[in-house]
Amino acid sequence: MQQKKSKKKQNGHTMYAVKYERKPKEGGQVCDENTAVNAPVQPALVIKNAEFITSAARADQFITPNKPMIAVCGKSNVGKSSFINMLANRKKLAKTSSEPGRTRLVNYFDFGEFILADLPGYGFARVSKGEKEKWAKTLNAFFADKEKISHVFMLADSRHDPTEDDVQMLEFLNFHILPFTVVLTKADKLSKMKIKEHIRAIAADLYLGESNLLATSSETGYGKNDVLKKIKTVIDNANLVRENFAEAENGDVDTDNEIEE
Ligand SMILES: Nc1nc2c(ncn2[C@@H]2O[C@H](COP(=O)(O)OP(=O)(O)OP(=O)(O)O)[C@@H](O)[C@H]2O)c(=O)[nH]1
Ligand SMILES: [Mg+2]
User: Fold this and answer.
1) What is the pLDDT of residue 25?
2) Residue boundaries of the structural domains of the chain
3) Topology annotation, domain 52-249
4) Which ligand 1 atom is the nearest neighbour of the CA of 76?
């Protein structure tokens, strides 16, 4: 704490006021919601160079990644592409638009240690029935290949109640036993108090624990480090599973666990 004294005249008397201010710790003042005030934040994961890989319009164009892949899905215009750009520290890696229904393909991005797949948005009313069916088919085919997917970030607007489509999407993820986190977008439009209230309400609406939800803002970077922490855990777990598989394939059995007779 730092003491600041100030002097001011009132009714001919000299008044002294002492104000205490928290002194920022050395090493930075960046903090996110889940970290103590003024604690320096080390990014949970450093993203050096993110690159676009390819787009897929049909299932036979989906890629088979050789590293953990995280899918980003959500309603049209919820902020999926902006979220990817925030993580990449780039403005235009994924194309964003105020016009809903912009991303109609599965777009893959290489983030070094992992791959992100930006999925076409659902629930956009102003498209033809045929087009909607085509999107649904692409999404179904993508998630059916679940061995390739390490985690899903399902984006929903932090300001609104989840839509029927959001609920359906979550039921779909649960049905296929796909691990997911709900990422609430556009949190810059809410006060910190309201963010907490909305997290609670949306979690209750979706029958989820609050720890399954992360609030973010692609405009301000709010919540970014919480997302990076989640990604780090996903990568570590996926790599562990991969190593165990490789060991099992090579016939390396852990003899410590063998039962002695
Ligand atoms: N204020 C605010 N606006 C945002 C945020 N994220 C996205 N937007 C805006 O929301 C609009 C849609 O963003 P996109 O990232 O293109 O959304 P999308 O989900 O990829 O949309 P589709 O590809 O069409 O499904 C754009 O005008 C963005 O600038 C955010 O965190 N805060
Ligand atoms: Mg998009």
Assistant:
1) 43
2) 52-249
3) Rossmann fold (3.40.50)
4) 25
